[in-house]
Each structure stands twice: as structure tokens, then as C-alpha cells.
Amino acid sequence: MAFPITSSFTITFISTLLLLFKASISLNNTWDVDEHWTMSKEGSIPTSDADLLEFALNLEYLEAEFFLWGSVGHGLDQIDPTLAEGGPQPYGAQKASLDNVTQDVIYQFALQEVGHLRAIKKTVKGFPRPLLNLSASNFASVIDSAFETHLRPPFNPYANSTNFLIASYLIPYVGLTGYVGAIPKLQSPAAKKLVAGLLAVEAGQDAVIRTLLYERRAQSVGLYQRKVEWFANTISKLRNKLGKGGLKDEGLLVPPKVGAEGKVGGNILAGDKYSLGYPRTPEEILRIVYGSGDEKKVGGFFPKGAKGKIAKSHYDNVNSLNHKHKRSKKGSIPSLDVDLLEFPLNLEYLEAEFFLWGSVGYGLDKVDPKLANGGDAPFGAQKAFLDPVTRDVIYQFGLQEVGHLRAIKKTVKGFPRPLLNMSASHFANVIDEAFGYALKPPFNPYANSINFLLASYLIPYVGLTGYVGAADKLQSPPAKKLVAGLLAVESGQDAIIRGLLYDRRLQKVAPYGITVQEFTDKISKLRNKLGKAGTKDVGLGSAHDMSKGKGGILAGDEHAVGYPRSPEQILRIVYGSGDEKTTGGFYPEGAYGKIAQHYHK
Ligand SMILES: *[C@@H]1O[C@H](CO)[C@@H](O)[C@H](O)[C@H]1NC(C)=O
Ligand SMILES: *[C@@H]1O[C@H](CO)[C@@H](O)[C@H](O)[C@H]1NC(C)=O
Ligand SMILES: *[C@@H]1O[C@H](CO)[C@@H](O)[C@H](O)[C@H]1NC(C)=O
Ligand SMILES: *[C@@H]1O[C@H](CO)[C@@H](O)[C@H](O)[C@H]1NC(C)=O
Ligand SMILES: *[C@@H]1O[C@H](CO)[C@@H](O)[C@H](O)[C@H]1NC(C)=O
User: Fold this and answer.
1) What confidence tens digit (pLDDT) does each residue in 180-202 have?
2) Which of 325, 348, 367 is the last residue of a domain?
3) Are 455 and 384 spatial neighbours (Cβ–Cβ below 8 Å)?
4) Domain count of the chain?
5) Does residue 482 fall inside a structural domain?
6) Which of 12, 289, 318, 342 is the most exposed place for a label (fewest CB within 10 A)?
């Protein structure tokens, strides 16, 4: 699209927010996630689900140790030895020489991984920490094989922030694609719910790492005469090659035809042509983390192999598990899944219009009128005064939402665009309600970048929690797969918005003299209040347990697992009424689709 040349860079953010909700269509309150999805005891999880959950532990161990050691110079053995269960100490891990911002972010990631280990081990038995090779020389050999040469001096991930971020680019994304790949195969609600929550946060971590690298993409790395973007692109190519699963990995810059909607070359988040996250099978992941391109040939980060039944079935050769990952056929989507897939269209429309209008001053009616399907034009939408970087990012978000609308409408029939109230005065009302008094002058989301980002903080996260809430209720593999892909990108968008705001959290928003952080905390509190389902939302300043008093760059529960919301909870928030039956707010005539319309008659 025309976008690429507009400004200094083209950033392709591939995140999107969609919400999927699971609904169980008995017309009771069955969409209420909370009432039904208590964490299951081990017994109720089928073996195939347990194997997939356990497989993920391998990567969580790797990430936890790498991030802990890199940020604070010690690992699980000091933080919580019971989690290591007597597994061997990681080989060659060390503290990295990081600037304060990177250290802060990486330490938060580390604690999130610790939470993930706990969450998985609470659900399945698991295994002790496998032997991990975190030595600088192991990273150097990965980088050498990506470059197909010997870098001199050898690449050292621990030398400084840029190097550490490049090394971090290596890891979480692999886990992320694994979660996207796992969701369609899971059977039990408990496992689906847990993986959706893990995916939400892993996707956020990956997005933050990509953003930090994106900001430095034109910097040279060390003495190598190569830029950051070259490193990222080359690592992505190596992973595609080793994984042998085709294109599932993209660097920070791509040919525009591969970018969001085939229109942008910047690629802050990776996704397919519908801006959906890519899935990987356990075998593809093993080929990558072993560095051998062969799931039977252990090595790389796991010198003695990954643990658990799936990984072992390949190198033990005992009895190869028959885990073929068949591609599911389309077509057979049960009506409950259809309703759950249609519901998030409401939010995708809102996000698509808001991001498109805000960045380029027009919306779906110009980009692709078929997608609007004759729905009313959005009320009060306008172009925002954005700095070039913010505009590029937001435009990419807009295109990603367009991709998501297409992806959903390709799968289910859907409905026309609902009437959306995107007027500045509506946003002002929401902000006034969050603060409990009328700000003077009224808050204007379109006035500048910071205001627009704060307004953006309002929306995608609600969609994200909806996808997390939906994942465990879906039945058909195509629906599960679609939602997993949407969730991956949506989480990335939310993480980037949070990341951009987190950078400026202590900045005062003019002319109110109120910090960015306080805005986010108030907005999150308002959403919790309207949603009427407890805490599912935390601002940037919220110090929840896992962050040990540090900032909350990503939101999650005490195990750093993403929060779920039901469609009702979402309607209460986007209507601004705290009541799914009282329409208004962003949807003056209500949201569309069977789930929403069930409430307003
Ligand atoms: C609602 O749920 C209750 C309890 O599960 C059940 O007895 C009732 O029949 C349900 N009502 C409808 C309309 O499904
Ligand atoms: C980084 O953190 C250290 C320790 O908290 C502090 O002494 C130093 O001033 C910080 N540096 C910057 C640039 O903020
Ligand atoms: C870790 O990797 C390096 C580089 O390949 C290798 O020299 C070292 O022996 C490995 N350590 C273990 C414990 O496998
Ligand atoms: C990072 O570390 C490498 C190796 O010590 C060094 O050559 C390079 O200049 C450093 N880069 C930055 C940005 O400090
Ligand atoms: C949008 O919201 C504003 C502020 O509440 C209100 O004045 C306006 O009438 C609303 N527009 C529509 C179409 O509902």
C-alpha cells in the first residue's frame, strides 16, 4: 500500500486485537468465563494435552534462565529451587551488561517466565529443568550459522543491551509460534485456557523485544558492519531453514508484499497475509532449538535434548508417538464457534476504523468498502496529529485489523460494520468517568501522539482478553487455529502500545499535569469496574506480585498468564454502561451478532 513511503519508516506491526469469546449458547450466563473455567486438576486433562503443555516447559525453562541470569545474574536456583526440581544448572549463563531500561524490561520478562513455569506445573506434572547451554559461545555458533561465516570477535549476547536483545529475539518467538500451533490440538478447556493465557504474554514479550530492536534497526552491531535489522532478518531466515515448515518467521523489514495487507515493508510483528500469528509444531521447534534442523538430533540450547514425551519420542526412539499434525479441514464449524468468532468482529471494526482514521484520515470505506458491508459510517472519526513514528505504527495496526476482518469473514459469515461512536467527546466522556471528574479542557484523543496512544490503550486490550476468554470454549480446529493466530498478533499490538506508553510513563500529559501512568491506571480500574469480574486489567504502574513492585509493562495474573474476559464483560466495558443489555458508548446502537444481540431485545 501506499504507506511505505509516507514517512521515515515503515513499521509493520502485526498485532491485532480481536476478541474471541467463547460462548456456550445456552442462553444463561454461560458466556461468563469466570464461572466455568476453574483451573482443572490434573486428572481432567487428557494425556495428549498434558504432553503438549509439558513440551512448552522446555522453552519456559530456557527463557526463565536466560532472562533471569541476563538481568540479575542468578537463576531459578536462587529464585525458587523447587521449580528447577534438581535439574542441572544452566551451562554458561551470566549477567549481561544492560542499560537500565533493558534491565528493567528483561527482569519483568524473567519473572513472567517464572510465573509461567508455576502455572504449567500447577496443571501438569512436568519434569526437572533440562540441561541448557546458555554459554556465549553457543549463541555465537547460532549467529555464525545464521550468517554462514565466523564472526570475529565471536558474537557475545552478554556484552551489551543490543546484543542481548538480538539474542532474546532468538528465543521467545519460537515459543510463541509453538503456542499458536498447540491451541488447535488441545482438547480440554483447562489446557486451552492456560495456553491462551501463556500465548497472550509470550506474544507481548516478543512484541516488546521486536519494538526495542526496531527502534535500533539501523544501528551497527559491534564491529561487524552489519545492522540490527540484518541480524534479525538473518536469524529469522535461519529459523525458517531449520524448522523446515516454510515461512513462519519474519525479520524487522520485509518486502512489502509480505507485510500487513501486502502494503508495508516494516515488520515490527510477524504474521501471515491476514496478520495472523504463525503456528509451529513441536518438531519444528526442536529442529530450531537443537540447531540441527532435525528433531532427532539433540544439541544447541538443549545439549541432552528437551524433556517430556513428545521430545523424547524422537531421540529415544522407544515408541514414536503418533503425533501427526494434520491440517484440519475447513468447513465444519459448529454454530457456537461461529457465534464466538463473529462477536470479535465488533471490536475488529472499531479498531480498524480508529487506527485507520487516526493515522491516515480515512477508513474502511476507502480501504475496502466490501468489508464494511454497507454498515453506517463511523461517527466522529478523524485524523489525529501524530508524530511520524506513531503514525507508521498505528497505520500498520490499522492494516493488521483489516487483515483480521478478512480472516474472520473468510471463516464465518459475519455482519456489516456496526455504528461506531469515535467522536472526541465520547473518548472525553470515558476519560472523565475514569477520573471521576470532568477534565478541563476535555480529553481529545486526536490532539497528539500521547493522547492517541492513551485512547488506543482503551481498546485493543479489551479485545485481547476476549480472545483469551474464547480460546477454551471453541471446539473446531479451524476456529481454534484462527483465534490463536489472532490472539498472537493482538497481544503484540497491545504490548507495543503499552511499551510506547511505558517509555513515557512518568511524563505529564498536558495540560492536565497527570502522568501517563496515572491515566493507564485509571483506565484499567474503570474497565475492571465496568466489567464486573474482578481484576482483569492492570495499568503500567500496578505493582502486582510477579513484578515485585516493578512496573507492569505487560498485564497478567499472579502467574503472568493473560486474563480472560467473556463477551458480556466486554460489552459492559465497550457500552460504558457496566451492563451488557444497555447499549451505548462506542456502540450507540449496540454490537452485532448473536451473542451481543441476545442481550438487547
Ligand atoms: C439456565 O441454567 C440453569 C442452571 O444451569 C438451568 O436450570 C436453566 O434451565 C437454564 N436456562 C436456560 C434458559 O437455558
Ligand atoms: C541506572 O540505575 C542505577 C542503579 O539503580 C542508577 O544508579 C543510575 O543512575 C541509573 N542510570 C540511569 C541512566 O538512569
Ligand atoms: C555449549 O556450547 C558450546 C558452543 O557450541 C560448546 O563448546 C559447549 O561444550 C557446550 N556446552 C555443553 C554443556 O554442551
Ligand atoms: C556491544 O558489545 C560489542 C562487543 O563487546 C561491542 O563491539 C559493541 O560496540 C557494543 N555495542 C554497543 C552499542 O555498546
Ligand atoms: C457520540 O458520543 C457523544 C458524546 O457522548 C454524543 O454527544 C453523540 O451524540 C454520540 N453520537 C452518536 C451517533 O451516538
Assistant:
1) 788 888 888 888 888 888 887 88
2) 325
3) no
4) 2
5) yes
6) 318
